[in-house]
Amino acid sequence: MSLLRVEDLHVEVDAKPILAGIDLEVRAGEVHAVMGPNGSGKSTLANVLAGRPGYDVTRGCVTVDGEDVTGLEPEERSLRGLFLAFQYPIEIPGVSNMEFLKAAVDAHALGRGEDPPSAVEFVKRARAAASRLALNPDFLKRGVNDGFSGGEKKRNEILQMLILEPRLAVLDETDSGLDIDALGVVADGINAFRDVGNAVILVTHYQRLLNYVVPDHVHVLANGRIVRSGDASLALELEERGYGWLDA
Amino acid sequence: MSEQSNELADLVGAEHAATGREYTAGFVTEIETDTLPPGLDENVVRAISGKKEEPAWMTEWRLDAFGRWQRMRTPRWAHVQFPDIDFQAISYFSAPKGDAPKSLDEVDPELLRTYEKLGIPLHERARLAGVETAAEDAPQVAVDAVFDSVSVATTFKERLAEAGVVFCSMSEAIREHPELVRKYLGSVVPKPDNFYAALNSAVFSDGSFVYVPKNTRCPMELSTYFRINAENTGQFERTLIIADEGAYVSYLEGCTAPMRDDNQLHAAVVELVALADAEIKYSTVQNWYPGDEQGNGGIYNFVTKRGACLGERSKISWTQVETGSAITWKYPSVVLRGADSVGEFYSVALTRNFQQADTGTKMTHIGPRTKSTIVSKGISAGRSQNSYRGRVRMNPGAKGARNYTQCDSLLIGDACGAHTFPYIESKLPSAVVEHEATTSKVSDEQLFLCQQRGIEPERAVAMIVNGFCRDVFRTLPMEFAVEAAKLLEVSLEGAVG
Which residues of A touch B448 (CB under 8 A)? Predict the structure, then answer.
């Protein structure tokens, strides 16, 4: 059974159509890349999967593990294993990264009917994940994204993914704004996360990240539709010939 | 390792914040009372004094205050609105029937149950509610329980007496320690200080009295728990705390009231006196009934709190967490008279529904090199109005004095208001006065981030508000910090959306 199934998805923002009939199927163990020029609807697709308010689904549906999640609240989708790494992570001053992560982990544990991990156990887990991403342990004590550099914010998104262990991670331009070293660290994090039991959707402009995280499928979005799907070689072709080539 | 324990402490606080619902203190205790009929004149003042078997000087003191009050008018400058109070419709004294209990064993079991229900145990082996899990080695707390107009029990009196510390009801202090009461009562907040202080001076019923002798560190936290129970009754308590030279005391105050449709008046006066090298830390968690969602009922909390740093190097620190009351009008202040004395004010004020708060502080620098710090965190939700009002005054003698003020407002929703009224009066150019202010809003993006990680919106708001208040919570004793975080979460129920 597919982990994620998107069927005939139509989405409007402020009554303006953005997605005009998306069909997409993602199975466990797969990595999909969604590419496309600016304004093609990539970020809208990422956000609407997560249930962000302000995106109106006018037709079609999204199912996770066979369950229709189209009408669910964002936190309900999260508990079903849907994770979004934000393109522009927001700051929450005063709330420490540690406290924020613990609240999230606790909510997920309770959602599964389990006891939340003890504080000691949790701190251990969080520190291990931080060191995997080459983040100083102090990072966990700072306010959520508060005063973080662009690269730190993106690494923080990956940190949250590693700790929450979602079924499906949608990474919205996680590679943008990263220098080459940070890109490597983030890619290592994603590869460490990849598993036969989960799936990743990489939303990206560029081929760059795909050199490190090799996708099983590549989709090209234009004007709110998937205009082309293929394997990893499609991304290389796009890199060489540009998006204009698809219009021909 | 200490780093890790800090993180753990934060997490424990955060976990504790996740429990509790609505206004759980809103119940009524059925108990026979001895209540004066509504109305106020000289005879009522004499009757209160008579019930408490006060000496003539005290009765005269009250009558003098009453005379002054009659010539005063209700203050109108605060940023709050409410209909005129009919002072003749209020009863000025209500006490559980019977003679005052001489020991804990004699306290009416119904009253003990009331405090038990509120999480304030009046037996001496227990600790404040919730403390067991937060810190195994938490210090014990001595409690003075004030029910309507009288103190019904004071715990740990003997153990405190061994250290020379006097902790008793004000009524008892007037009888047992008249020299201290005569010397200091009204010395910090004079009778005609303001309308409500004058009223309190005339009709005050009970409250706590603390005296910590020279070079003594009070061996445990002291606390008073105020409970308004009777209908149509005002509570006018009076608290006086004196820390003699080199003494230290930490004092906590909590308050609740039943849910009633009418507004009830609470007009207290608290006076603190710190002599040379003495330190007083005064913490309040104020949870008076705030009224319902339509703005009906709730307590009018019109309180005068002031401390005098009389001696050199003395220190007075106020911390308040204000979540209750329909209207709060309160400015815990410090008069910095002694050279190098220090005044602090840390405040969290949360308003929601139709609550109104006009609160802040006054720091009056008189002595040289005096220092004051003000940290105020205002949180507004619903249709509430939340104002910070503060005055920093540098008198000509305050050479080298410094003040730092930080005043932050957080808005939840767009129907509420946050206001800041800072007054700076400096008579000498060498004094340093710094003021910083910010206003922020709990944004939809922040909420969405939390939701995307599985955290429900109400829990998310509580977490964000807690983070916003951290600087103030840090100054509270551990058990109160947990209590305060919990209270904020409860008060924020339904504030989202």
Answer: 52-53, 74
